[in-house]
Amino acid sequence: MKHPPLVETLIEAFTCLPGVGPRSAQRMTYALLERGREQGRELAGALQAAMDGVSHCERCRNYAERTNAEQNLCAICLDPRRDSSLICIVSSPANVLAVEQSGEFRGHYFVLMGELSPLDGVGPRELGLDVLEQRLRDGEIRELILATGTTVEGEATAHYILDLAREAGVSVTRIAQGVPMGGDLEFVDGATLAQALRARRPFAD
Amino acid sequence: MKHPPLVETLIEAFTCLPGVGPRSAQRMTYALLERGREQGRELAGALQAAMDGVSHCERCRNYAERTNAEQNLCAICLDPRRDSSLICIVSSPANVLAVEQSGEFRGHYFVLMGELSPLDGVGPRELGLDVLEQRLRDGEIRELILATGTTVEGEATAHYILDLAREAGVSVTRIAQGVPMGGDLEFVDGATLAQALRARRPFAD
Protein backbone atom coordinates (compact mmCIF):
# COMPACT_ATOMS: atom_id res chain seq x y z
CA MET A 1 0.00 0.00 0.00
CA LYS A 2 1.38 3.35 -1.07
CA HIS A 3 0.13 6.87 -1.61
CA PRO A 4 -2.17 7.43 -4.59
CA PRO A 5 -0.12 7.57 -7.84
CA LEU A 6 -0.43 11.36 -8.23
CA VAL A 7 1.02 11.83 -4.74
CA GLU A 8 3.82 9.29 -5.30
CA THR A 9 4.70 10.93 -8.62
CA LEU A 10 4.97 14.36 -7.02
CA ILE A 11 7.16 13.08 -4.16
CA GLU A 12 9.43 11.38 -6.70
CA ALA A 13 9.56 14.52 -8.86
CA PHE A 14 10.64 16.72 -5.92
CA THR A 15 13.75 14.57 -5.39
CA CYS A 16 15.21 15.99 -8.63
CA LEU A 17 15.92 19.22 -6.69
CA PRO A 18 19.38 19.61 -5.12
CA GLY A 19 19.40 18.80 -1.39
CA VAL A 20 15.95 17.19 -1.45
CA GLY A 21 15.74 13.52 -0.40
CA PRO A 22 12.66 11.28 -0.14
CA ARG A 23 11.65 12.57 3.28
CA SER A 24 11.93 16.27 2.42
CA ALA A 25 10.06 15.53 -0.80
CA GLN A 26 7.23 13.93 1.17
CA ARG A 27 7.13 16.89 3.54
CA MET A 28 6.93 19.35 0.63
CA THR A 29 4.17 17.33 -1.02
CA TYR A 30 2.08 17.15 2.17
CA ALA A 31 2.58 20.87 2.87
CA LEU A 32 1.33 21.88 -0.57
CA LEU A 33 -1.59 19.42 -0.54
CA GLU A 34 -2.70 20.49 2.94
CA ARG A 35 -2.08 24.19 3.07
CA GLY A 36 -0.86 25.45 -0.27
CA ARG A 37 -2.73 24.21 -3.34
CA GLU A 38 -2.75 27.68 -4.86
CA GLN A 39 0.97 28.15 -4.16
CA GLY A 40 1.56 24.72 -5.68
CA ARG A 41 -0.20 25.76 -8.87
CA GLU A 42 1.82 28.99 -8.94
CA LEU A 43 5.04 27.02 -8.55
CA ALA A 44 3.96 24.71 -11.39
CA GLY A 45 3.28 27.70 -13.63
CA ALA A 46 6.54 29.46 -12.72
CA LEU A 47 8.49 26.25 -13.41
CA GLN A 48 6.89 25.68 -16.78
CA ALA A 49 7.37 29.33 -17.80
CA ALA A 50 11.03 29.40 -16.74
CA MET A 51 11.93 26.04 -18.28
CA ASP A 52 10.44 27.13 -21.61
CA GLY A 53 11.17 30.86 -21.58
CA VAL A 54 14.65 31.28 -20.07
CA SER A 55 17.54 31.12 -22.46
CA HIS A 56 21.10 32.41 -22.38
CA CYS A 57 22.34 35.76 -23.63
CA GLU A 58 24.16 35.08 -26.89
CA ARG A 59 26.89 37.53 -25.99
CA CYS A 60 27.61 36.99 -22.26
CA ARG A 61 25.87 33.62 -21.55
CA ASN A 62 23.93 35.07 -18.57
CA TYR A 63 20.25 34.18 -18.26
CA ALA A 64 18.01 36.03 -20.68
CA GLU A 65 14.39 35.57 -21.62
CA ARG A 66 13.67 34.32 -25.11
CA THR A 67 12.55 37.14 -27.37
CA ASN A 68 11.70 37.47 -31.05
CA ALA A 69 14.71 39.71 -31.60
CA GLU A 70 17.37 38.60 -34.07
CA GLN A 71 19.85 38.13 -31.24
CA ASN A 72 18.87 36.99 -27.74
CA LEU A 73 20.63 39.46 -25.45
CA CYS A 74 20.37 40.15 -21.72
CA ALA A 75 19.51 43.58 -20.26
CA ILE A 76 23.17 44.35 -19.45
CA CYS A 77 24.43 43.61 -22.96
CA LEU A 78 21.58 45.72 -24.40
CA ASP A 79 22.36 48.75 -22.18
CA PRO A 80 24.08 51.38 -24.40
CA ARG A 81 25.47 53.25 -21.37
CA ARG A 82 27.73 50.36 -20.38
CA ASP A 83 31.30 49.93 -21.59
CA SER A 84 31.42 46.87 -23.84
CA SER A 85 35.22 46.92 -24.09
CA LEU A 86 35.59 46.02 -20.39
CA ILE A 87 34.58 42.44 -19.60
CA CYS A 88 34.24 40.97 -16.11
CA ILE A 89 34.45 37.18 -16.08
CA VAL A 90 32.39 35.39 -13.43
CA SER A 91 31.35 31.79 -12.96
CA SER A 92 27.61 32.17 -12.32
CA PRO A 93 24.63 34.53 -12.67
CA ALA A 94 24.59 34.92 -8.87
CA ASN A 95 28.07 36.43 -9.13
CA VAL A 96 26.82 38.96 -11.69
CA LEU A 97 24.25 40.07 -9.10
CA ALA A 98 26.98 40.32 -6.44
CA VAL A 99 29.21 42.51 -8.62
CA GLU A 100 26.24 44.65 -9.71
CA GLN A 101 25.37 45.27 -6.07
CA SER A 102 28.87 46.62 -5.42
CA GLY A 103 27.92 49.53 -7.73
CA GLU A 104 31.54 49.72 -8.91
CA PHE A 105 31.32 48.18 -12.35
CA ARG A 106 29.80 49.60 -15.55
CA GLY A 107 31.23 47.20 -18.13
CA HIS A 108 29.90 43.94 -19.53
CA TYR A 109 30.14 40.39 -18.21
CA PHE A 110 31.05 36.99 -19.49
CA VAL A 111 29.33 34.30 -17.43
CA LEU A 112 31.07 30.92 -17.54
CA MET A 113 28.12 29.02 -15.97
CA GLY A 114 30.67 26.86 -14.14
CA GLU A 115 34.43 26.43 -13.76
CA LEU A 116 36.91 24.11 -15.46
CA SER A 117 36.56 20.64 -14.00
CA PRO A 118 37.81 18.01 -16.47
CA LEU A 119 36.83 15.08 -14.22
CA ASP A 120 33.20 16.23 -14.36
CA GLY A 121 33.39 16.70 -18.11
CA VAL A 122 33.53 20.50 -17.90
CA GLY A 123 36.14 21.68 -20.39
CA PRO A 124 36.75 25.06 -22.12
CA ARG A 125 33.95 24.47 -24.65
CA GLU A 126 31.34 23.88 -21.91
CA LEU A 127 32.27 27.28 -20.44
CA GLY A 128 32.00 29.02 -23.81
CA LEU A 129 35.73 29.81 -23.84
CA ASP A 130 35.88 29.16 -27.60
CA VAL A 131 33.40 32.02 -28.01
CA LEU A 132 35.42 34.23 -25.64
CA GLU A 133 38.61 33.44 -27.58
CA GLN A 134 36.96 34.58 -30.81
CA ARG A 135 35.80 37.79 -29.18
CA LEU A 136 39.31 38.47 -27.82
CA ARG A 137 40.69 38.05 -31.33
CA ASP A 138 38.09 40.41 -32.80
CA GLY A 139 39.87 43.24 -31.00
CA GLU A 140 36.83 44.86 -29.40
CA ILE A 141 37.87 44.02 -25.84
CA ARG A 142 40.22 46.39 -24.04
CA GLU A 143 40.47 44.65 -20.67
CA LEU A 144 39.39 41.40 -19.05
CA ILE A 145 38.70 41.48 -15.31
CA LEU A 146 38.89 38.03 -13.78
CA ALA A 147 36.40 37.51 -10.95
CA THR A 148 36.24 33.72 -10.82
CA GLY A 149 36.30 31.99 -7.44
CA THR A 150 39.48 31.40 -5.44
CA THR A 151 38.99 27.63 -5.35
CA VAL A 152 41.25 25.21 -7.25
CA GLU A 153 38.81 25.10 -10.17
CA GLY A 154 38.47 28.89 -10.15
CA GLU A 155 42.27 29.30 -10.25
CA ALA A 156 42.63 26.81 -13.09
CA THR A 157 39.92 28.62 -15.04
CA ALA A 158 41.58 32.00 -14.42
CA HIS A 159 44.93 30.75 -15.70
CA TYR A 160 43.35 29.24 -18.79
CA ILE A 161 41.69 32.56 -19.62
CA LEU A 162 44.91 34.48 -18.89
CA ASP A 163 46.63 32.40 -21.59
CA LEU A 164 43.84 33.11 -24.09
CA ALA A 165 44.01 36.84 -23.44
CA ARG A 166 47.82 36.99 -23.69
CA GLU A 167 47.74 35.26 -27.06
CA ALA A 168 45.24 37.87 -28.24
CA GLY A 169 47.24 40.73 -26.69
CA VAL A 170 44.41 41.82 -24.37
CA SER A 171 45.32 43.06 -20.89
CA VAL A 172 44.04 41.00 -17.98
CA THR A 173 43.41 42.15 -14.43
CA ARG A 174 42.03 40.35 -11.45
CA ILE A 175 39.85 41.61 -8.61
CA ALA A 176 42.10 42.08 -5.61
CA GLN A 177 42.14 41.95 -1.82
CA GLY A 178 38.92 41.36 0.01
CA VAL A 179 37.87 38.13 -1.63
CA PRO A 180 38.41 35.51 1.07
CA MET A 181 40.43 32.48 0.01
CA GLY A 182 38.31 29.40 -0.66
CA GLY A 183 35.08 31.39 -0.56
CA ASP A 184 32.44 31.79 -3.22
CA LEU A 185 31.98 35.26 -4.72
CA GLU A 186 28.26 35.46 -4.08
CA PHE A 187 28.78 35.52 -0.29
CA VAL A 188 31.01 38.62 -0.35
CA ASP A 189 29.47 41.95 0.70
CA GLY A 190 29.25 44.88 -1.73
CA ALA A 191 31.82 47.14 0.00
CA THR A 192 34.48 44.42 -0.09
CA LEU A 193 33.74 43.73 -3.74
CA ALA A 194 33.95 47.47 -4.57
CA GLN A 195 37.38 47.61 -2.92
CA ALA A 196 38.48 44.49 -4.79
CA LEU A 197 37.41 46.03 -8.11
CA ARG A 198 39.22 49.35 -7.42
CA ALA A 199 42.43 47.56 -6.33
CA ARG A 200 42.61 45.17 -9.30
CA ARG A 201 46.13 44.35 -10.53
CA PRO A 202 47.79 42.82 -13.58
CA PHE A 203 47.43 39.05 -13.49
CA ALA A 204 50.64 36.95 -13.49
CA ASP A 205 51.37 33.28 -12.84
CA MET B 1 19.94 44.71 -11.75
CA LYS B 2 18.31 41.39 -11.04
CA HIS B 3 17.71 38.09 -12.77
CA PRO B 4 15.24 38.12 -15.67
CA PRO B 5 11.63 38.16 -14.36
CA LEU B 6 10.94 34.49 -15.17
CA VAL B 7 13.97 33.48 -13.12
CA GLU B 8 13.08 35.78 -10.20
CA THR B 9 9.50 34.48 -10.21
CA LEU B 10 10.66 30.87 -10.03
CA ILE B 11 13.10 31.59 -7.17
CA GLU B 12 10.33 33.36 -5.28
CA ALA B 13 7.88 30.50 -5.95
CA PHE B 14 10.29 27.87 -4.57
CA THR B 15 10.36 29.63 -1.18
CA CYS B 16 6.77 28.47 -0.57
CA LEU B 17 8.21 24.99 0.13
CA PRO B 18 8.96 24.09 3.77
CA GLY B 19 12.65 24.46 4.64
CA VAL B 20 13.47 26.40 1.45
CA GLY B 21 14.88 29.92 1.89
CA PRO B 22 15.99 32.39 -0.80
CA ARG B 23 19.42 30.79 -1.24
CA SER B 24 18.16 27.20 -1.57
CA ALA B 25 15.49 28.48 -3.95
CA GLN B 26 18.17 30.11 -6.11
CA ARG B 27 20.23 26.90 -6.09
CA MET B 28 17.20 24.85 -7.16
CA THR B 29 16.38 27.30 -9.95
CA TYR B 30 19.94 27.30 -11.31
CA ALA B 31 20.15 23.49 -11.12
CA LEU B 32 16.98 23.03 -13.15
CA LEU B 33 17.87 25.73 -15.68
CA GLU B 34 21.39 24.37 -16.20
CA ARG B 35 21.04 20.63 -16.01
CA GLY B 36 17.41 19.66 -15.64
CA ARG B 37 14.94 21.45 -17.93
CA GLU B 38 13.13 18.19 -18.67
CA GLN B 39 12.98 17.31 -14.95
CA GLY B 40 11.71 20.81 -14.28
CA ARG B 41 8.89 20.32 -16.76
CA GLU B 42 8.07 16.95 -15.20
CA LEU B 43 7.96 18.54 -11.75
CA ALA B 44 5.65 21.26 -13.09
CA GLY B 45 3.34 18.63 -14.56
CA ALA B 46 3.37 16.48 -11.41
CA LEU B 47 2.59 19.54 -9.29
CA GLN B 48 -0.29 20.65 -11.46
CA ALA B 49 -1.74 17.13 -11.63
CA ALA B 50 -1.49 16.58 -7.86
CA MET B 51 -2.86 20.00 -6.90
CA ASP B 52 -5.88 19.45 -9.15
CA GLY B 53 -6.36 15.71 -8.87
CA VAL B 54 -5.67 14.77 -5.25
CA SER B 55 -8.60 14.94 -2.91
CA HIS B 56 -9.40 13.29 0.43
CA CYS B 57 -11.23 10.00 0.95
CA GLU B 58 -14.72 10.90 2.14
CA ARG B 59 -14.67 8.11 4.67
CA CYS B 60 -11.16 8.12 6.20
CA ARG B 61 -9.75 11.51 5.07
CA ASN B 62 -6.59 9.91 3.62
CA TYR B 63 -5.39 11.13 0.22
CA ALA B 64 -7.45 9.81 -2.68
CA GLU B 65 -7.52 10.73 -6.35
CA ARG B 66 -10.64 12.46 -7.60
CA THR B 67 -12.87 10.07 -9.51
CA ASN B 68 -16.27 10.29 -11.13
CA ALA B 69 -17.71 7.86 -8.58
CA GLU B 70 -20.56 9.03 -6.37
CA GLN B 71 -18.30 8.90 -3.31
CA ASN B 72 -14.57 9.67 -3.41
CA LEU B 73 -12.97 6.76 -1.54
CA CYS B 74 -9.37 5.63 -1.11
CA ALA B 75 -8.10 2.16 -2.06
CA ILE B 76 -8.18 0.93 1.56
CA CYS B 77 -11.80 1.98 2.16
CA LEU B 78 -12.78 0.36 -1.17
CA ASP B 79 -11.09 -2.98 -0.33
CA PRO B 80 -13.89 -5.49 0.55
CA ARG B 81 -11.44 -7.84 2.30
CA ARG B 82 -10.69 -5.34 5.06
CA ASP B 83 -12.60 -5.10 8.33
CA SER B 84 -14.51 -1.82 8.35
CA SER B 85 -15.58 -2.22 11.99
CA LEU B 86 -11.98 -1.83 13.21
CA ILE B 87 -10.63 1.70 12.83
CA CYS B 88 -7.03 2.76 13.39
CA ILE B 89 -6.67 6.47 14.09
CA VAL B 90 -3.48 8.12 12.83
CA SER B 91 -2.44 11.72 12.39
CA SER B 92 -1.04 11.66 8.83
CA PRO B 93 -0.96 9.68 5.56
CA ALA B 94 2.71 8.84 6.27
CA ASN B 95 1.53 7.02 9.41
CA VAL B 96 -0.93 4.96 7.36
CA LEU B 97 2.03 3.80 5.25
CA ALA B 98 4.01 2.95 8.41
CA VAL B 99 1.18 0.84 9.88
CA GLU B 100 0.57 -0.87 6.51
CA GLN B 101 4.22 -1.81 6.33
CA SER B 102 3.96 -3.61 9.68
CA GLY B 103 1.62 -6.08 7.91
CA GLU B 104 -0.32 -6.50 11.17
CA PHE B 105 -3.46 -4.54 10.45
CA ARG B 106 -6.38 -5.39 8.14
CA GLY B 107 -8.94 -2.84 9.31
CA HIS B 108 -9.70 0.68 8.13
CA TYR B 109 -8.11 4.00 9.07
CA PHE B 110 -9.23 7.42 10.11
CA VAL B 111 -6.59 10.00 9.19
CA LEU B 112 -6.74 13.17 11.28
CA MET B 113 -4.39 15.16 8.98
CA GLY B 114 -2.98 16.82 12.10
CA GLU B 115 -3.36 16.80 15.87
CA LEU B 116 -5.35 19.05 18.23
CA SER B 117 -3.51 22.34 18.61
CA PRO B 118 -5.92 25.11 19.67
CA LEU B 119 -3.23 27.81 19.57
CA ASP B 120 -2.68 27.07 15.86
CA GLY B 121 -6.42 27.05 15.20
CA VAL B 122 -6.60 23.25 14.90
CA GLY B 123 -9.72 22.13 16.77
CA PRO B 124 -11.87 18.96 16.58
CA ARG B 125 -13.65 20.12 13.41
CA GLU B 126 -10.36 20.62 11.53
CA LEU B 127 -9.47 16.99 12.30
CA GLY B 128 -12.86 15.72 11.13
CA LEU B 129 -13.76 14.58 14.64
CA ASP B 130 -17.38 15.66 14.10
CA VAL B 131 -17.53 13.12 11.25
CA LEU B 132 -15.88 10.46 13.43
CA GLU B 133 -18.38 11.17 16.22
CA GLN B 134 -21.27 10.60 13.81
CA ARG B 135 -19.76 7.33 12.63
CA LEU B 136 -19.26 6.16 16.21
CA ARG B 137 -22.94 6.85 16.90
CA ASP B 138 -24.03 4.99 13.77
CA GLY B 139 -22.97 1.78 15.53
CA GLU B 140 -20.89 0.30 12.70
CA ILE B 141 -17.57 0.61 14.54
CA ARG B 142 -16.56 -2.20 16.91
CA GLU B 143 -13.19 -0.95 18.07
CA LEU B 144 -11.05 2.18 17.75
CA ILE B 145 -7.29 1.71 17.82
CA LEU B 146 -5.48 4.92 18.75
CA ALA B 147 -2.15 5.33 16.98
CA THR B 148 -1.63 9.07 17.34
CA GLY B 149 1.82 10.36 18.31
CA THR B 150 3.12 10.38 21.89
CA THR B 151 3.68 14.14 21.89
CA VAL B 152 1.57 16.52 24.01
CA GLU B 153 -0.72 17.23 21.04
CA GLY B 154 -1.00 13.52 20.25
CA GLU B 155 -1.96 12.74 23.86
CA ALA B 156 -4.56 15.51 23.93
CA THR B 157 -6.03 14.24 20.67
CA ALA B 158 -6.13 10.66 21.98
CA HIS B 159 -7.98 11.72 25.13
CA TYR B 160 -10.49 13.76 23.16
CA ILE B 161 -11.26 10.74 20.95
CA LEU B 162 -11.44 8.44 24.00
CA ASP B 163 -14.24 10.64 25.37
CA LEU B 164 -16.12 10.55 22.05
CA ALA B 165 -15.89 6.75 21.89
CA ARG B 166 -16.97 6.26 25.51
CA GLU B 167 -20.06 8.38 24.95
CA ALA B 168 -20.93 6.21 21.95
CA GLY B 169 -20.14 3.00 23.86
CA VAL B 170 -17.37 1.93 21.47
CA SER B 171 -14.31 0.17 22.91
CA VAL B 172 -11.00 1.97 22.51
CA THR B 173 -7.51 0.46 22.48
CA ARG B 174 -4.14 2.00 21.99
CA ILE B 175 -1.03 0.64 20.31
CA ALA B 176 1.36 -0.41 23.04
CA GLN B 177 5.04 -0.77 23.88
CA GLY B 178 7.60 -0.05 21.24
CA VAL B 179 6.54 3.46 20.30
CA PRO B 180 9.33 5.66 21.67
CA MET B 181 8.15 8.59 23.83
CA GLY B 182 8.25 11.91 22.02
CA GLY B 183 8.85 10.24 18.66
CA ASP B 184 6.78 10.44 15.50
CA LEU B 185 5.09 7.26 14.28
CA GLU B 186 6.51 7.37 10.79
CA PHE B 187 10.07 6.82 12.04
CA VAL B 188 9.22 3.54 13.83
CA ASP B 189 10.26 0.27 12.11
CA GLY B 190 7.66 -2.28 11.00
CA ALA B 191 8.57 -4.99 13.53
CA THR B 192 8.18 -2.59 16.45
CA LEU B 193 4.86 -1.38 15.09
CA ALA B 194 3.64 -4.98 14.63
CA GLN B 195 4.49 -5.70 18.27
CA ALA B 196 2.75 -2.50 19.34
CA LEU B 197 -0.40 -3.51 17.46
CA ARG B 198 -0.45 -7.05 18.93
CA ALA B 199 0.09 -5.77 22.49
CA ARG B 200 -2.60 -3.09 22.37
CA ARG B 201 -4.50 -2.50 25.64
CA PRO B 202 -7.69 -0.80 26.82
CA PHE B 203 -7.13 2.96 26.98
CA ALA B 204 -7.56 4.67 30.37
CA ASP B 205 -6.78 8.16 31.63
Structural account:
Two copies of one chain form a homodimer. With 205 residues, chain A is α/β, with parallel strands linked by helices. Chain A folds into two domains: 5-52, Orthogonal Bundle (Helicase, Ruva Protein, domain 3); 80-202, Dna Topoisomerase Vi A Subunit, Chain: A, domain 2 (3-Layer(aba) Sandwich). Helix content of chain A is 44%, strand content 14%. In chain A, the strands form two sheets. The first copy, chain A, has a five-stranded mixed β-sheet with strand order 4-3-5-6-7. In chain A, a hairpin with a 6-residue loop joins strand 1 (54-56) and strand 2. Chains A and B meet through helix 1, helix 2, helix 3, strand 2 and helix 5 of A and helix 1, helix 2, helix 3, strand 2 and helix 5 of B.
What is the CATH class designation of the largest domain in chain A? Alpha Beta
**Helical segment count of chain A:** 8
Oligomer designation: homodimer
Q: What is the percent of helical residues of chain A?
A: 40-55%
The two chains with the largest interface, and their residue counts, are: A-B, 58 and 57 residues
According to DSSP, the number of beta strands of chain A is 7
Largest sheet of chain A: 5 strands, mixed
Which strand-content bin applies to the residues of chain A? 5-15%
First-residue to last-residue Cα separation of chain A: 63 Å
Taken together, the total number of domains of chain A comes to 2
Q: How large is the radius of gyration of chain A?
A: 21 Å
By CATH, the architecture of the largest domain in chain A is named 3-Layer(aba) Sandwich
Question: Helix/strand/pairing class of chain A, anyone?
Answer: alpha/beta
Mean pLDDT of chain A: 87
Question: Unreliable segments of chain A (pLDDT under 50, ≥5 consecutive)?
Answer: none
